[in-house]
Each structure stands twice: as C-alpha cells, then as structure tokens.
C-alpha cells in the first residue's frame, strides 16, 4: 500500500539546502521528513534545526541532526510540518498532536512554511477536525465555560483510557472544540486570541505558502498559496 505521508514528507526534504536553518514540525508525517533529513545529515549535509516539540527533539537528536534554539536564530529558512486539515485557501487546523503553540511560533518565524499531508486531509471547509486550543491550567474551567457559552463545545483532551488530562510540552491543557464547520476563520481566530487563559489555538491562517499532498495513486501534488487562492476564487464565483 502507498504510504502517502512518507511520499509527501520525503519530497519536501528536497527543498532543504546546505547551510539552512530548518524548522521541524511534529507528528507522524513529519517523522518521515526528520528520518530523511537525518540520513542526509549523516551523508554530509550541514544544517541546523529548530524543533517544535519534545518528541521531535528526541527524534532529531537520535538521527544526529544538529539543533539550535529559536532564541538563537535570526529566522528559520524553511519549516516542514504536517496538518490535520487544509482548505483550498491554504489555511489549516493543526494541533492534533498537541504541539500547536511551538508549531505556530516556529511557523511565524519562518521565511517559508511547507506543509506535508496525505490527500485525506484536504477539505473544502475547515472544522470537521476538532480545533485544539491550548489553555493554561489556572482557571481553565472558566475558559471552558466561556467557550461553551459561545457554542464551541469544548472537551478537555485526556490521555487514552484515563481521566488524566493531556499536558502539553508547555505544561498546559488542551480543549478540543467541536465546531463541525468554521464559516468565518478570521473571526474565530480573533475571538480565541481575545480570551484570557488561552495560550494558542490551532487555526493557522495564511501561514503556509506551499503544500505537498501525497496521493493514494502514488503521485505527489504541489500547491502554492497563489494557486490555492485562485482555486478558492473560482469556487466562490461559480
Ligand atoms: C501536531 C500537528 C501535526 O502536524 C498534525 O496533527 C498532523 O499529524 P500527523 O502527521 O500525525 O497526521 O499539528 O501538533
């Protein structure tokens, strides 16, 4: 069977050039990119990487990839990351793996963000995937109540088969919002940004310029934000 995630992730590594500062995302798709980069580093490629989670840090260290802190770089040349959903305007939902805050920080400080997904993650409208929101443990139940009043249906993320909350790398909790369809992504992002107690949310709007999609027929499709927005315009005008 075709491994669509691996196809896209390994293709993305072709964009990495000698001397670059590379952002490494988190998740099962990014795993294949990190693995490939590790092999290139062993073969002599000189790069430094900024990681987006403790899991990615561990993996990158195991693969011998030299790491640098986000504090110690001017900016990042290229970040390769996965996503949970991507729409035709190249906006996405991230944070299924709980690393949304560091992923967004790294994305915001990257000259170029390249997402790698399998074709099942392409959607016409964001929202079927629950939107992760990272909240500080202090008073998080108040935030939960506020989100409930807004009809966002928050659910505290718990460890599997347990009542224990998932704790992020930053020591926080995650509320997953069951929204089904997000009609106005900009409005929602601003609303969530304005609520005290929310550290970050998983709406990544206009952050990514390039997307590689691994397909079940074994091909890889490349889309850029330009082509995506053209397509979105056509859909709106039809
Ligand atoms: C982690 C993320 C991941 O990029 C997203 O969940 C996709 O994961 P995967 O590649 O395992 O499907 O945002 O916080």
Description:
- With 238 residues, the chain is of the alpha/beta class.
- The protein has two domains: 4-120 and 205-235, Rossmann fold; 131-197, ACT domain (Alpha-Beta Plaits, 2-Layer Sandwich), CATH 3.30.70.260.
- 31% of the residues lie in helices and 21% in strands.
- The protein contains seven helices and 13 strands.
- The strands form three sheets. It has a six-stranded mixed sheet with strand order 2-1-3-6-12-13, with helices on both faces.
- Helix 1 packs across helix 2.
- The termini are far apart.
- Bound molecules: ribulose-5-phosphate.
- Ribulose-5-phosphate binds at residues 25-29, 81-84, 94-100, 103.
- Ribulose-5-phosphate binds next to helix 2 and helix 4.
Give a brief rundown of this model:
With 238 residues, this protein is α/β, with parallel strands linked by helices. It folds into two domains: 4-120 and 205-235, Rossmann fold, CATH 3.40.50.1360; 131-197, Alpha-Beta Plaits (2-Layer Sandwich). The protein contains seven helices and 13 strands.
Structural class: alpha/beta
- Count of domains: 2
CATH architecture label name of the largest domain: 3-Layer(aba) Sandwich
Task: Point out poorly predicted stretches.
Answer: none
The strand order across the widest sheet is 2-1-3-6-12-13
Q: Under CATH, the topology of the largest domain is which? A: Rossmann fold
Q: What's the helical proportion of residues?
A: 25-40%
Total beta-strand segments: 13
Radius of gyration, taken over Cα atoms and rounded to an integer in Å: 18 Å
Main sheet properties: 6 strands, mixed
């Amino acid at each position: 069977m075709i491994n669509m995630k691996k196809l896209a992730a390994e293709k993305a590594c072709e964009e990495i050039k000698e001397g670059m500062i590379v952002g490494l995302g988190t998740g099962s798709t990014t795993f294949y990119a990190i693995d490939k980069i590790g092999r290139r580093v062993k073969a002599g490629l000189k790069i430094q990487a900024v990681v987006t989670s403790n899991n990615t840090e561990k993996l990158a260290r195991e693969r011998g990839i030299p790491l640098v802190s986000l504090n110690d770089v001017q900016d990042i040349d290229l970040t390769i990351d996965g996503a949970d959903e991507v729409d035709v305007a190249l906006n996405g939902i991230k944070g299924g793996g709980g690393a949304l805050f560091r992923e967004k920080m790294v994305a915001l400080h990257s000259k170029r963000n390249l997402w790698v997904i399998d074709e099942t993650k392409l959607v016409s409208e964001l929202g079927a995937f629950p939107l992760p929101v990272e909240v500080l443990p202090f008073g998080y139940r108040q935030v939960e109540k506020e989100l409930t009043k807004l009809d966002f249906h928050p659910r505290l993320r718990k460890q599997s088969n347990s009542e224990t909350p998932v704790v992020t790398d930053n020591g926080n909790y995650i509320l997953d919002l069951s929204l089904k369809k997000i009609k106005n992504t900009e409005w929602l992002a601003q609303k969530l940004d304005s609520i005290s107690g929310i550290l970050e949310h998983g709406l990544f709007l206009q952050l990514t310029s390039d997307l590689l999609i691994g397909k079940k027929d074994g091909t890889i499709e490349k889309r850029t934000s330009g082509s995506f927005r053209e397509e979105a315009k056509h859909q709106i005008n039809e």
